Amino acid sequence: MNEACRRAIEDPETNAAHLQQCASCRALFEELNTPISDARVQVRELPLAPWEGATYRSWPLVIAGAAAVLLAALALCAAVGLSPLRAISMGIGSTAIARSSLLTAADAVRNASTIWQIAFGALFLLVNTALVLLLRRAPRGIDA
Amino acid sequence: MRRPPRILLFLAIAAASVITATLAAPPASSSVVGDARRVLLTPASFTDAAAMMQRTAVVASLLFVWMIAAVALTLISGREIRYSSIEVRTSPLHCLALGLVAVTSFVLTAIVFSWLTSVIGIPLLVALAVFAMLTKIYGTIAVFHAVGTIVAGLRTREQLSQRRWLRGDLAMVIIGLLILGAIRLVPVIGPIVWGLASIFGVGTALATKFGRREPWFLAWRPAEL
Fold first, then answer.
1. Roughly what angle, to the nearest 10 degrees, separates helices A3-10 and A23-31?
2. Which of A3, A17, B11, B56 has the most crowded Cβ, counting Cβ within 10 A?
3. Do A52 and B112 touch (CB under 8 A)?
């Protein structure tokens, strides 16, 4: 009994082709009165797996998309008399609003009454407990 | 995953066109809603129009930066992006809930860190900000992939063999970015949709541990004697 025979005995459906070729294995299954399914898997009938064709790199689409966005950005920047780098820095710099809001909220909580500070502490614990509970769930994407 | 009927796609495009056209040129109306819409969306003066165009230019410039980041990240870790994209398509509610809770947690934790003394608090705040930014960027790119796959993804093997360039992770990310980027340019609705995409993105990034699909916490088991 070789490795192929062992695999066929362990998983006869997957290794149906071996059972058709190997007389000793076929005799063994006939002795056990176990039907051997010779239904071959039709790959073309199987649903498309997410990874099939996924590694293909579509450079024409990337270049066309990037060129379209770049041209639109350059045209708009030229129309308002703004350099593209300045526009990008303005966009990224908008996080300063979030930073100042955060500092304002921190000051407000610091200067709040004890009851509000306890409520904030309870909210902090509650939200982080919910986060931990949600993170404990295993992702199901591939198996769904 | 079942393919939605093609008529739904055309209806969605028609509905989106009507909404965009209505927002871009609100119909004249004496109602309060109509007036509010005109005040919000239609510039009253030349200065307002210039400010609106400047905002659009900033958004378009940032979209180009997003495109560079999306292409680079997809080339580096395409499989992880794909896994996160699958998760956001199969468990959207879980990703939304996780995203909302995670963003709230980031804000509350940042407030707590800002209370600490500067020696401890500032490094912790910087670490939290970097983690939050990376989560948002990675997750939003995963959402680009998900949107691209929903709109233009492969359904059958015939499509796989027929399509020449509209296939692969990179193409799906670009398609999703162009769609969400176009929506981002629409006043009022654009920032809302983009913010929702960010929340979904943060959720899927954390749910899949940045596409690695590993548990965040080790399970405790008693030692076997």
1. 30
2. B56
3. no
| Cα A128 to Cα B54: distance, rounded to the nearest angstrom | 39
Examine the domain organization and report whether B38 and B60 are in the same domain.
no
pTM for this model (two decimals): 0.76
| Domain spans of chain A, in order of start | 3-45, 59-93, 96-139
Lowest mean pLDDT among A100-104, B76-80, B188-192: A100-104
Contacts of B186 (CB under 8 A, 6+ apart): B20, B23, B24
Domain-embedded: residue B221: no
Shared-domain flag, residues B119 and B168? yes
Q: How far is CA B198 from the centre of its chain?
A: 4
Whether A91 and B58 lie within 8 Å, measured CB to CB = yes
Domain total in chain B? 2
The answer to whether residues A51 and A43 touch, using CB atoms and an 8 Å cutoff, is no
B107: three-class secondary structure by DSSP: helix
B71, B155, B160: residue with CB nearest A62: B71
Does B117 map to a domain?
yes
Are B60 and B38 within one domain?
Answer: no
pLDDT in tens, B115-165: 887 788 889 999 999 999 999 999 999 999 999 999 988 888 888 888 888
Report whether pLDDT(A119) > 70.
yes
Environment class of residue A138 by beta-carbon count within 10 Å: exposed (0-12), middle (13-18) or buried (19+)?
Answer: exposed
Q: A54 is written with which tokens? A: 């996924």
How big, in percent rounded to 5, are the helix, strand and coil portions of chain B?
Answer: 75, 0, 25
Determine the pLDDT at residue B30: 47
Chain A residues touching residue B218 (CB < 8 angstroms): none
* Contacting residues for A61 by C-beta, under 8 A, at least 6 apart: B165, B166, B170, B171, B174, B175
Residue B38 and residue B124 share a domain: no
Quote the ipTM score. 0.75
Helix or strand run (H / E) with residue A71: helix A59-80
Shared domain check, B65 and B26: no
Residues B101 and B137 reside in one and the same domain: yes
